Amino acid sequence: MYKLLLIYVFLLPSLTEPPTRSLPVLQTDTLPAKSATAMHFDSLGLTNIADVDSTIRVDLMYASPHNFTGRVLYDNLKEGYLHPDAAKALAAAQKELRKRKPGYSLIVYDATRPMSVQQKMWDVVKGTAKNIYVSNPARGGGLHNYGLAVDVSLVDPTGKPLPMGTEVDHLGYAAHINAEDALIQKGVITAQQRANRVLLRTVMKHAGFRTLPTEWWHFNFCSRQVAKQKYKLIK
Ligand SMILES: [Zn+2]
Asked: How many angstroms separate the CA atoms of 59 and 106, rounded?
């Protein structure tokens, strides 16, 4: 092996011109740099989901324009952060999912959302019919603003999201979870899509999360009352 390496080193300059350009650049630091918002969250004692379970996929929908506002709401954040209590529960949900469906994974579309971003989101829906789907910052925001809510779905072993009947962030009746029988009867969602939602709910509830009637992808770690008593708002 050593001899082969020597031959390679001596042959390399003669095979390629100019030799100085043919040398590979050493990658000393392959880890992506942490965003400024992530470092702010670190300073507040929040937990990066990747640190509790690196197999959980994170693809923040407000870091791109592919969300219901059509705008980028996160200037730099790309990491998913939660309060440590909620992060621990999410790792337990991933563990339960993998026990039931080896190779499958949770995919996180939003987690901790600072109040400054909540305000941007509210400004988009204010005065429209969609305002029922967004927590008003003037009334203290919602559980995302405490790091205690997560928008999450499931991916199969190839990384493809399981069909759930609507896109994540679809604001409307088809995303509601309290009348799925009717949605199936009307042909709005299929029985398989409902089964996928049930699997997601099962593993999330197993880990202690609560559902939200209007959004199949949204899960709260505790009630709003408990959040206000025990936890801090993230600015
Ligand atoms: Zn949500």
From this structure: 11
